[in-house]
TrEMBL record, chains A, B:
Pfam families: Gal_mutarotas_2 (PF13802), Glyco_hydro_31_2nd (PF01055), Glyco_hydro_31_3rd (PF21365)
Database matches in CDD domains: GH31_N, GH31_NET37
Name this polypeptide is given: Alpha-glucosidase
Biological-process GO terms, alphabetical: carbohydrate metabolic process
Species: Granulicella sibirica
Residue ranges of domain Glycoside hydrolase family 31 N-terminal in the record: 91-154
Glycoside hydrolase family 31 TIM barrel domain boundaries: 225-535
UniProt key word Signal: yes
Signal peptide: 1-23
Source species, domain of life: Bacteria
Molecular function, one GO term: carbohydrate binding
Every Glycosyl hydrolase family 31 C-terminal domain range: 546-630
Family classification: Belongs to the glycosyl hydrolase 31 family.
Keyword Signal attributed: yes
């Protein structure tokens, strides 16, 4: 039975027709796949709502790579409108699915129920996330986007039909308790319900590979983001209550002590009032904001400002936003109606003139997710906004529209930004914002990083505090191999390496000898600086063809069930594999994908295709490079603004037959190739800030 | 401003009219309170659904106590039908609200959002519960039932209107972070949304006191349950895989070692297949079920059988139920359509003939809640049932209808039962079922007990295992002062006092000297036996006028803000206050309500009205009796079936001016009164099993 027959078999099956009231609602299969772009089709069920991620998109789609075949699965079947809309899609035996946005609790989603619902603090594996996305990718090489801004429930083969035939008497003497077959071996269905929508459009993305599916989805979203180079440097967020003077001292300490840093973040204390926010400088802490920002910029620090959108009545934005806000308040502030273009303009223009024009490089957009299920704040689902959306829709829209509001200001100024945000959703790939959250479990942080690449999201597993030196080091080792390398010291006046204990740190009681830990951290932050050309190349590929720069091993090594399960290791770009260690665990196991690899740190060859144990005594984060790789290592400088950072050591792993290619959307390029026959390297580049090559070094 | 004016003021406020699209939907106040019974009114908004807790009720309402006044609050106002139905009810300054069923995380619900959604394993304070009820009680002396079987969200003053006026600049230098006023000081609203209903009926219950409100609600439900006396004895559940022979040995050990026990529970192992269930005896373990049950009955053990409703294809019930089930399966079994009378009859008749007729006294109805948000099982919301309800409705209906299915069989046989169930809902007071769950936090268990009395529910904080001897003792001390005193040994072959360690218990490696711990437990279980006449009286009052036998201190002592907050102490009946200790905590504080009290154990007087600290070294559970109480203490026997249990010691606390009255619905009665002037007691009784009086003892 081929896949299309299988799909038809499922759709005609007894499951859905067994209850008369449901069977009567089965339509005459009116939905059809309509080709919208190579390898991308759309099917409409019922009457879709006016405001959805696609219909209200900000960025136009880009044409995807050619695809000659027909749709890989039959169109979705409508299963009635008794409550919202319900549709069915096929799920073959042994088919696995991935995606649904920034999931913290699981990687493989078959046999689970995923609720696409914005929740800042998910506690169980329900699908809730601060960046849920109604999009999944199948191991059979296609992807499905259900285009809704409402809460949607995906039953990923988890809703089982009732049994229809009796069986004989079960042999006595054994009582299986809690036997729950995951049912992978049987064909099933993905059932999708949107309880409060009258219809939806469904988009289908062809492969043939899962990575091709994601590329198509990301190009459909508008293509991946290419961050400014400084965004890929190291970030540090200062204590919330620090004064400008204290921050200038801290940044000087970073420069004096050779801690690289490109971005300095200010937390809530820069506002005159926070929770809710005023967006106005606290004159006691920052008597001359423009001079403060200029002083940092002159030393190659970019300044990032924390805020949330809820607008305090004492804010200069309050009166202009008063009629451009929802009917409910949060923390005593207005909730901007970011679905309304005028609200985005008023809110954005204020930020542009008051903040970007004095040199602010980016923002950290906090609290734009939803904590009604946990923390008990945020606007309720029953909120109404002047644009016509309700609170449920707004929760799914708010994060991306808040991003768009501020990004637009940078675009108008022809400036790049790289910013932080706590909520996102469908079609996010082009947005220059990286997700973070208030969660903190290290394994969950890593799993989220692995999952992010399935849904066009970037994720920062930020370092805040640590239970031990080991924990600090392991977390820092993880974050420097992520989209945004940051320590968030918002509640400690001194960097964590000087004192891990929060209370003592706040009392300025530093550890007896913090220098060795500082040195370890400096070394790890240095790795990040060395990686920047490599990261730039990965992002440039993201921008060009939608390939996520950080992604699950399942995408690069399909067809291996053991690799498909790995949720604690990830690919960075096309040749680097990271398998972090976690504090408190004695070791970790890694199933290295097939092929020849090299230890990134030593160059020693390591054979793939088998699992091995890595003990916790391993000093550096375990990292492996595909054999043949040409790999550029930048010089460590205080910031990317230092031209010396462009002096490269070129490492050759194995025979060097895999050239390194960096091609940015802005037209800058670097090609490093090695000829094993002649043992000579070639450099071709086009850049306003050219790279210099120090050495070509054979590593293994 | 009086309460009615306040209500009107709120309803006319700017909050709801500030967004034009909402204001346009405001109806011309068509809803009106219609008197349905003394002190009970109904208002209809929109078009209520066909199947709701009240419209599909099993038990008719009983007339409540006279109430001459007008409705204490204005009718609910409809706030539009854009998504389901939304209504508003007043909430005055400083008004507190309670209820919403079996809540584990909080007692006072103002400023919170409560989702009425069945969830077996709530992890955060959202309202989710395995027994949520869309009913709340106000400190102002009224109650509101929103009659829906759908998920409903109650915003208890938590959804705040947006601010409307700018304020001046906030003084610089202070940045309040996370300032979130609970807003008790301002009048607000309770907003209720039922996203998938086209309308609802709302019922209003008058006081004047909160306890009166609850009485009216419980009488409206049909009145409280009066359990059979054996149900108030001690319960023990044997290991799931125990054979009949092993259970006969265990029960003989109980009798030999003078551990009182009235009910012996069998867990899953009695079925030929469990998860899903067959309801057929496993012949290896139970070759002759009828003899087995008779053997236990002859020694005054009642037998309770575990099951869940999901019907395995090898069950004799499978074929008859096949067309009386939902379209989805759970654990490979059918989901009975308990909303369908024929389904209840077929399922119930089988149980009646096969199980009740051989002497089974009750059931433990497991897994009838919902774990889709946590454990990932149960039928999905998109399920359809032949009766017309969907999975969302069925989750709210399933528990009570499952109870009704089996209770009906006992009623047809003119037999009483007292059973266990894991889900319940609105109008549950008459049902002879006590809730339990898989949760286990001792403080949460106590809070649930305190909360249960607001919503017509009974809750068993069962003892399963314990981290320490202290924990075992403290948990056992709690459960004997609850509606059902049970140790659930389903995963241990030996009683926990013989070995706390689960693995060792299963290996029959008993503790070196378990006799002292057994003696402690025997003593505590003995307390339960001594309490039975007192508990019977409290339940008889529940049956007669709806007064919950276990309840929050707020109900007996209104008007004291410090007492209103107490979620770790409760009243049993009208004169006994229990304030448990929790293992691992050094002490506890108790604000004893005003008036004169006595230590229950010593009779020593204790002055109420002040808070005091009770150290963890306190041997017995802290318990206090109102001064003046006449309190019957039964003799400790192996079971309530022993006539010797009716020999009473009468304890007099203080002057003995508060007589003890027991008046069952069946017409049995006992009146114990004491004349302080003559120092003589009087006994008046009517019973088929008369009490004898051993002593009248002055205790304090």
């Amino acid at each position: 039975m081929n896949r299309r027959q299988l799909g038809k078999g499922i759709l005609a099956g007894a499951t859905l027709a067994s209850v008369p009231s449901v069977a009567a609602q089965l339509p005459s299969s009116s939905a059809q796949w309509i080709l919208t772009s190579p390898g991308v089709w759309k099917a409409t069920l019922g009457t879709p709502e006016a405001i959805t991620p696609v219909s209200a998109r900000f960025i136009p789609p880009r044409v995807t790579a050619p695809f000659a075949g027909s749709p890989p699965i039959p169109p979705p079947i409508s299963l009635g409108q008794a409550r919202g809309c319900l549709l069915g899609l096929p799920l073959a035996a042994d088919e696995e699915i991935y995606g649904f946005g920034l999931q913290f609790f699981s990687l493989q989603q078959r046999s689970k129920r995923r609720v696409i619902r914005v929740n800042a603090d998910p506690r169980v594996d329900t699908g809730d996330s601060h960046a849920p996305v109604p999009f999944y990718v199948s191991s059979q090489g296609y992807g499905v986007l259900v285009d809704t801004a409402r809460y949607a429930t995906f039953y990923c083969g988890e809703a089982r039909p009732k049994p229809t035939e009796p069986t004989g008497v079960v042999p006595s003497g054994t009582v299986p308790l809690y036997t729950k077959s995951l049912g992978m071996e049987e064909p099933s269905q993905v059932l999708v319900e949107v309880p409060l929508a009258t219809g939806v459009d469904v988009y289908l993305f062809a492969g043939p590979s899962m990575l091709d599916v994601i590329r198509r989805y990301n190009l459909f979203s508008g293509g991946g983001v290419m961050p400014p180079e400084w965004g890929l440097g190291f970030w540090y967020r200062a204590a919330s209550n620090a004064t400008g003077q204290e921050i200038l001292s801290l940044t000087q300490e970073f420069r004096d002590r050779k801690i690289p840093c490109d971005v300095l973040g200010l937390e809530a204390g820069w506002h005159t009032h926070a929770y809710s926010c005023t967006f106005a400088w606290n004159a006691t802490r920052f008597p001359d904001p423009a001079s403060f920002v200029t002083s940092l910029s002159s030393r190659n620090f970019h300044v990032n400002l924390w805020e949330h959108a809820f607008t305090h009545p004492s804010s200069p934005l309050f009166t202009p936003m008063r009629n451009l806000a929802g009917d409910k308040g949060v923390w005593g502030g207005l909730v901007p109606d970011f679905q309304n273009p005028q609200a985005r303009k008023v809110f954005g223009d204020f930020h542009g003139k008051a903040l970007i024009d004095i040199g602010i490089s980016g923002f950290k957009l906090d609290e734009c997710d939803n904590s009604d299920y946990t923390g008990g704040w945020s606007f309720p689902e029953i909120s109404r906004f002047p644009s016509g959306v309700d609170g449920e829709q707004m929760h799914n829209l708010f994060g991306l529209r808040y991003q768009a509001t501020l990004w637009q200001q940078f675009q108008e100024r022809k400036q790049l930004t790289y910013s932080l945000v706590r909520s996102s959703g469908a079609l996010a790939a082009p947005f220059p914002f990286v997700l973070y959250s208030d969660l903190y479990d290290h394994r969950q942080f890593v799993r989220a990083l692995v999952n992010s690449g399935f849904s066009g999201l970037l994720w920062c597993p930020e370092v805040r505090d640590a239970a031990s030196e080991e924990d600090l080091i392991r977390r820092l080792q993880t974050v420097v191999f992520s989209p945004l390398a940051m320590i968030n010291g918002w509640y400690i006046p001194n960097p964590p390496w000087k004192q891990l204990d929060r209370k003592k740190n706040n009392a300025n009681e530093l550890a007896d000898d913090w220098h060795p830990l500082e040195a370890r951290c400096r070394e790890i932050i240095g790795w990040r600086m060395q990686l920047i050309p490599y990261l730039s190349a990965a992002f440039a590929t993201y921008a060009r063809d939608g390939t996520p720069p950080f992604r699950a091993l399942a995408l690069d090594f399909p067809g291996h069930p053991e690799i498909a399960k790995i949720d604690d290791a990830w690919m960075v770009g096309d040749r680097l594999l990271i398998a972090p260690l976690f504090a408190g665990e004695p070791d970790r196991t890694l199933m290295l994908p097939p092929g020849q690899w090299h230890d990134f740190w030593t160059g020693n060859p390591v054979a793939g295709g088998t699992a091995f144990v890595i003990p916790a005594t391993t000093r550096n984060i375990p990292a492996f490079v595909r054999t043949g790789s040409v790999f550029p290592i930048a010089s460590i400088t205080s910031s990317t603004g230092d031209q010396a950072s462009r002096a490269l050591d070129i490492r050759l792993f194995g025979d060097g037959r895999l050239p390194f290619i960096l091609n940015t959307p802005e037209g800058e390029s670097l090609l490093l190739s090695w000829d094993p026959a002649t043992a000579k390297g070639t450099v071709v580049q086009h850049s306003s800030r050219p790279y210099t090559i120090k050495n070509w070094t054979k590593q293994g």
